[in-house]
Amino acid sequence: MMTIAASRILQNEMICFVGIGIPSTSAILAKSMHAPDLFLVYESGTVNTNPQKLPLSIGDGELANRALSVVGMPDIFNYWLQPGRIDMGFLGAAQIDKFANINTTIIGTDYRNPKVRLPGAGGAPEISGACKEVVIILKHSPRAFVEKIDFITSLGFGSGPGSRKAAGLIGNGPSAVITDLGVLKPDPKSCELTLVQIHPDVTVEEVKENTSWDLKVANNLSVTAEPTQVELEKVRSLVANSRS
Amino acid sequence: MSLAEAISLHVQDGDTVALEGFTHLIPFAAGQEIIRQKKKDLTAIRLTPDLIYDQMIGAGCIAKLVFSWGGNPGVGSLHRLRDALSNSWPRPLDIEEHTHAGMTNRYVAGASGLPFSVLRGYGGTDLLSKTQNISHIKSPFSDETLLAVAAINPDVTIIHAQQADRKNNVMSWGILGSSKEAVFAAKKVIVTVEEIVDEFEPHHNSVIFPEKLITALAVSPRGAWPSYASGYYERDNNQYIAWDEVSKDRENFKLWLQAEVFGRGEK
Predict the structure, then answer these.
(1) Which of A49, B10, B175, B211 could, after both became Cys, cross-link A67 (CB 3.0–4.6 A)?
(2) Which CATH number covers residue A41?
């Protein structure tokens, strides 16, 4: 459901910065359905990428062989990302707070001796900084949706309105957080993440139980449309193809 | 020159080394030769310290790691890296952590002969207070405050490429990541290649490294395995998955090291 919900927000002709996993699956799904001209940029250097199966890693040969061009990383980060050319960036996270700041660095508060060492920043801080909008995809759980994250790897809305500008970020920041339970969007005034949509058969209580802060719920809460037969078939065939 | 000679001559204990290649063309054979020769106290630079640096960390070659994303790509964590950070096994490991944009621009500065590069980066992150070699800088032409990242000039950069010609020029194609910048930034450059050819054929998205840039060249067929070399072989994903088990446990890792690295000569 996360994959399908994410694919639906991708519009044709958008320039989209994608990572491996659900973002990639969503983008490939969107391209095969309503957004054939979606322009995919991967941080490994592939520009206008048209993968037919799910890449194993961010620099998979499948991406390079099916791209308009393959460029070096200075091109990707300095020329594509930094000036604000990318419409939408996709990020994952280990922890997120109510202002959509995310952590992919450490669990625990002692940087030199963390409880769990995570991979780190990769491209995320600048993706979060410079894309016109950012969509964050992660599973809902009280350990992931926390009051205070252990490390700010990528800034969402900092401590509220004005934080992004103060930090020198040119992009508009996170526009949606898509989880296995629903969709959260930042309040236009306070920037606080608010539950705006739940997936079929999910209750608001369930979402609240899986969020460690007191989650605000939109008055006009909607329910995600059931996956269509076509969407389900496409996802299944993508996964099946990629195994062979 | 053989790979063993190239490493023996050009990599010294205590050197700053960069083995580059972004999921593609990772110089595994060269990294394992460094392990075999028991090089130590290295400062190891790489955007994505994946399996090869996990192996070098576990073998005790690395004193400090400078990086931007440390994981087993598409699989999970690096257990040797975690063990070194948490338990100082087999030796303490210092880290200096950046972002991909930051690391790339550090190489660009090094390649350009400048002390630093400027970018809009690390904005609002905790990296700003935790990591070294970054500093805010005021634009002389506008009111903006930007980020400066210090140049990296490795003592040795090592890359793997597809081909060299008879004059030691090197051709590489496909995803190159920050390899080109790491080559230009280095004081010495070691290149391993799949094969020597009489003449290069044009390839989509290819880069040529003229022999002037290269200190030592060694032929190392399948030298990027288990990563891939476009036009030669695919990524051996089972190895990446298997590494998770091999590296989880110190004893397993030591057995692997004996059998697969010390037990074998240069591939």
Answers:
(1) A49
(2) 3.40.1080.10
* B144 neighbourhood in chain A, CB within 8 Å: 168
Length of chain A: 244
Question: Which SS3 state, helix, strand or coil, does residue A18 take?
Answer: strand
Distance CA B108, CA B180 (A): 9
Tell me if B174 and A70 make a contact (CB, 8 A cut-off). Answer: yes
Radius of gyration in angstroms for the set of CA atoms belonging to chain A, rounded to a whole number: 18
Instruction: Answer yes or no: is B22 within a domain.
Output: yes
CA distance A60 to A46: 10
Nearest CA in chain A to B147: A168
Answer yes or no: is B12 within a domain: yes
Cα of A220 to nearest chain B Cα, Å: 33
- Taking only residues 107 to 166 of chain B, the set having a beta carbon closer than 8 angstroms to any beta carbon of chain A reads 108, 119-127, 130, 144-146
Output the DSSP codes for B129-197. Answer: HH-SSEEEEE-SSSS-EEEEEE----SEEEEEEEEE-TT--EEEES--TTHHHHHHH-SEEEEEEEEE-
CB B203 within 8 A of CB B171: yes
The strand pairing partners of A178, in sequence order, are A137, A183
8-state DSSP, A228: P
How much is the pLDDT for B266?
A: 59
Q: What is the DSSP letter of B211?
A: G
What's the pTM? 0.96
pLDDT, residue A53, reads 84
Domain interval for residue B246 = 3-98+153-257
The answer to whether residues B159 and B21 touch, using CB atoms and an 8 Å cutoff, is yes
Domain limits at A186? 2-243
In a domain, B205, yes or no: yes
For residue B21, which of B158, B152, B156 has the smallest C-alpha distance?
B158
CATH code of the domain containing B242: 3.40.1080.10
- Averaged pLDDT, groups of 10, chain A, 244 residues long: 93 90 88 94 93 81 88 97 97 96 95 92 96 97 98 98 96 98 98 98 98 98 96 89 67
CB contact under 8 A, B73 and A58: yes
Strand partners, A130: none
Active site residue A62: no
Measured between CB atoms, does A74 come within 8 Å of chain B?
yes
Strand intervals (E) in chain B: 16-19, 42-45, 62-67, 94-97, 116-119, 134-138, 145-150, 156-164, 170-173, 188-196, 206-209, 216-219
How many structural domains are present in chain B? 1
Task: Decide the pairing of beta strands A174-178 and A182-186.
Answer: antiparallel
SS3 A160: coil
The answer to whether position B113 is within a domain reads no
Total number of domains in chain A? 1
